């Protein structure tokens, strides 16, 4: 019998450029992962970012910087409530979509905030990504997303990305009839492995109470704690 993950929460950000209710190929792929999580007891929320008024910028609340409105602060609360964050999106010109870039920038805007242990706020959470498109770019886009997430404090498990690409040039997208996307054994295998690894690691971290705090507390460092740090060059000691 497979393990259960009741009590875990996951948020999927779909960075498609299509507003609801227009069909999203990215959403077609992310459903594979989201439904697997739901079957194993994870509470899942899927958010199509383009449906929300997310301001551009690198501050937690851009209304304090002159923007008339900004839904990011409310979405950030959902991020903090989730044990798992999966960033999903299409590939355009071999790169992540503008919506994906905006979400990463807004996650970065809050990365200086601290948790109750004095660590950066995203510590103790896991991250992954799913990508769709024609031509090329899955590995390039995944490297950008996963590097960004770990840099902000997320823990990245093995095999934390998956994707599907159509043929080079104009051609069918993931959900188009005859595309081969939903039937792709390679994509389905990688998506399944990613999903299980996210759940396993999220549960391990939650059961352990997160990442141990010694050696990574920004608040303590600012107060003079050096966690056994000694510069190897005597002139800098």
Give the strand content.
15-25%
Question: Taking all residues together, what is the mean pLDDT?
Answer: 95
Strand count, sense and closure of the main sheet?
6 strands, mixed
- Helix/strand class: alpha/beta
Count of distinct strands:
6
Question: How is this structure best described in words?
Answer:
Helix 1 crosses helix 5 (185-207). The protein has helices at 25-39, 72-81, 98-109, 138-152, 185-207, 218-222, and strands at 9-14, 43-48, 84-92, 95-96, 126-134, 161-166. The chain is α/β, with parallel strands linked by helices. 37% of the residues are buried. The N and C termini lie far apart (56 Å). It is built from six helices and six strands. Helices cover 34% and strands 16% of the residues. Strands 1, 2, 3, 4, 5 and 6 form a six-stranded mixed beta sheet that branches.
Short description:
Helices cover about 35% and strands about 15% of the residues. The chain is globular, with a radius of gyration of 19 Å.
Short descriptors:
237 residues, alpha/beta, 6 helices, globular
Topology:
Elements: E1 9-14, H1 25-39, E2 43-48, H2 72-81, E3 84-92, E4 95-96, H3 98-109, E5 126-134, H4 138-152, E6 161-166, H5 185-207, H6 218-222
Parallel strand pairs: 1-2, 1-3, 3-5, 5-6
Antiparallel strand pairs: 3-4
